[in-house]
């Protein structure tokens, strides 16, 4: 794993925010509470969680153009992954008729932006749900949360398994995989929420898959511990 850090409460206006760093990758994650819900949730008494992802122009070299009215396909695919992953952390039926709007903006990219976004956004959600619990007079964010969510990339580079790939390693990986896991708040064994893997130059054997899953599981366990440590410090 590259050095990982979380800065909670990084911006003032959203209900929750976190600047997450995975090495030289930095993503600003915010969670806002909106008092409206999509049509398919109206009348259910429950809420929704949606996510948006973008890379700021200065996050890459050369400069990345801003998304216009139509987002590029990569951004759409990533924000759907982020939304699916984070919905696995929240009991939507307990939210009331509100939407958690998650925004993940990459301010510096060096590989693993989607996994950093998911991991940092969970902390932003935790803080937003803390504010919602106060407003709704609930015991705390645990009233809404189903567990911790964290994610990491793993890959095979030069025949070796690497956890948390930077851009250089990602660009030459023979196998590239993203793992998302959920851990119960009370502790216990984590489970997979999503596994995305591709052999970039053909197939890969089962033994390599097992090694990738083992490495990623170990890395995510470390991320869970870092998330809990971040919660022990006041934002």
Q: What number of structural domains do the residues give?
A: 1
CATH superfamily: GHMP Kinase, N-terminal domain
Largest sheet: spatial strand order: 1-2-3-5-4
CATH architecture descriptor name: 2-Layer Sandwich
Largest sheet descriptor: 5 strands, mixed
Strand content: 25-35%
How far from one another are the termini? 24 Å
Report the radius of gyration as a whole number of Å. 18 Å
- The CATH topology is given as Ribosomal Protein S5, domain 2
Any low-confidence stretches, pLDDT <50, length ≥5? none
How confident overall, as mean pLDDT?
94
Oligomer: single chain
Shape: globular
SS-based class:
alpha+beta
Task: Report what the structure shows.
It is a single chain. This protein is α+β, with helices and mostly antiparallel strands. The protein has one domain: 2-Layer Sandwich (Ribosomal Protein S5, domain 2). The chain has helices at 73-87, 113-136, 167-171, 206-231; strands at residues 4-8, 16-22, 25-34, 48-55, 99-108, 148-157, 160-163, 175-183, 191-199. The strands form two sheets. A five-stranded mixed β-sheet has the order 1-2-3-5-4.
């Amino acid at each position: 794993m590259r050095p990982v850090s979380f800065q909670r409460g990084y911006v003032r206006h959203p209900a929750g925010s976190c600047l997450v760093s995975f090495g030289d990758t930095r993503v600003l994650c915010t969670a806002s509470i909106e008092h409206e819900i999509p049509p398919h949730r109206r009348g259910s008494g429950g809420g929704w969680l949606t996510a948006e992802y973008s890379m700021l122009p200065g996050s890459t070299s050369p400069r990345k153009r801003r998304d216009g009215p139509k987002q590029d396909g990569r951004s759409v695919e990533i924000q759907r992954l982020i939304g699916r992953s984070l919905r696995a952390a929240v009991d939507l039926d307990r939210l009331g008729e509100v939407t958690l709007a998650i925004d993940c903006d990459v301010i510096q990219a060096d590989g693993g932006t989607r996994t950093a976004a998911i991991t940092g956004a969970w902390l932003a959600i935790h803080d937003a749900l803390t504010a919602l619990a106060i407003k709704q007079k609930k015991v705390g964010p645990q009233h809404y949360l189903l567990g911790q969510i964290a994610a990491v990339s793993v890959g095979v580079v030069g025949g070796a398994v690497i956890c948390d790939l930077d851009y250089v390693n990602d660009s030459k990986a023979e196998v590239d995989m993203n793992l998302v896991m959920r851990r119960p708040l009370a502790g216990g064994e984590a489970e997979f929420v999503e596994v995305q893997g591709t052999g970039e130059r053909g197939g890969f054997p089962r033994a390599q898959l097992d090694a990738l899953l083992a490495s990623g599981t170990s890395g995510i366990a470390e991320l869970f511990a870092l998330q809990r440590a971040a919660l022990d410090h006041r934002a």
